[in-house]
Amino acid sequence: MKVPMKVQPAKRTENITYAVRDVVVLADGIAATGKEMLYLNIGDPNLFDYRTPEHVIAAVVDAMKANHCGYGPSSGIPDARRAIGAEAEAKGIRAIQDIFVTTGASEAIDVALTALVNPGENVLVPVPGYPLYGAILNKLGVQENPYYLDESNGWQPDVADIAAKVNDKTRAIVVINPNNPTGSLSDRRTLQAIMDIAAERGLVVLTDEIYDKLIFDRRKYVSLASLSDDVPVVTFNGLSKAYLAPGFRIGWGIVSGPAEVVGEYIEAMNKLLRARLSAHHPGQYAIAPALEGDHAHLGEVVAKLTRRRDMTVQMLNAIDGIDCVSPGGAFYAFPRLHIDRPDSEFAAELVGETGVVVVPGSGFGQAPGTQHFRVVFLPSEEVLERAYRKIEAFLKKFKAG
Ligand SMILES: Cc1ncc(COP(=O)(O)O)c(C=O)c1O
């Protein structure tokens, strides 16, 4: 029999890393030995004590029973688009030109980038930041142009760094606010400065606002597109985080800016949207009930996360060799490790010895010479407390050895 030839994967997959999931492979191996695991690595609220609101679930079940089980419209069902538009207007976004519903915010990000950039061009992305952007840009053969968030300034985007990194091949600036992995909430002044750079240099702004309702300390959220009617902006959001339904895979993009500026770009995105038919059809029926219905769950979620955030910051900062900026939103913290070995080794040895799973900072990008790890503070106080005690004891040994 002829030996089958190995199937060679495409080169474009070579540089794609996804540390958030990569660490799971390692953890699974440890878990298989019977060790007790403490998972502080996955941003999925439904794995912990958070549940999708009943009325959001009911809307999908009702849609299925009503036979909305065929393909949906490519841009999304009209009632969902109306509700998304009304909410965006309430946030102060005025020059809305298009709204499209997608398979999670992830697909909206993919569509917005795919329709915009060519190989040889580049996109400014925050470092540290969510690795999906790099993965998509890699697939497109487009260069990531990293700009830094300033840890000494509460992880605010470094506006001077953004201005310095724009070149004649730069097409867009990605903003993730609140950010994953730092949990930092950008202030209005910084956001305005980013919009000013985009206006001056003719860039599209892609703003990922998936955590915009998970904000602590009663701080006011500023939606980036509300700061200018003149800059082309695509705002990403969805049901995954604030409505505790990541498995619905429902997200969206809102395109704003002057009609004549964004018209061709919108048509390019719609070509891609038509080619992939539609987002999950029944799931789209949850959008209007979610955005316009009872938000009682959100108060409880934010209160719970605030307690867990406070505990995280307090316990981690009490550890010798760790400094942690307090997150303003989302459910992530990105503590700094004062160690002289790579954080990938720290995370790998930590899970092996203690069963505590965190993602190393290198998976999100970080300033050269610095080491971090990301914790997800979704788990219960009891789990977090045990995990942080184990981290404290482990770090002492790690530093000594
Ligand atoms: C910053 C950010 N954007 C997008 C996503 C993906 O969202 P979705 O589930 O809507 O695809 C995540 C998920 O963790 C995220 O952290």
Automatic annotation (TrEMBL):
Pfam families: Aminotran_1_2. PROSITE patterns: AA_TRANSFER_CLASS_1. One of its GO terms (molecular function) is transaminase activity. Its cofactor is pyridoxal 5'-phosphate. SUPFAM superfamilies: PLP-dependent transferases. This is Aminotransferase class I/classII large domain-containing protein. It comes from marine sediment metagenome. Residues 36-391 form the Aminotransferase class I/classII large domain. Keywords: Aminotransferase, Pyridoxal phosphate, Transferase. Signal peptide: none annotated. The keyword Transferase applies. GO terms for biological process: amino acid metabolic process.
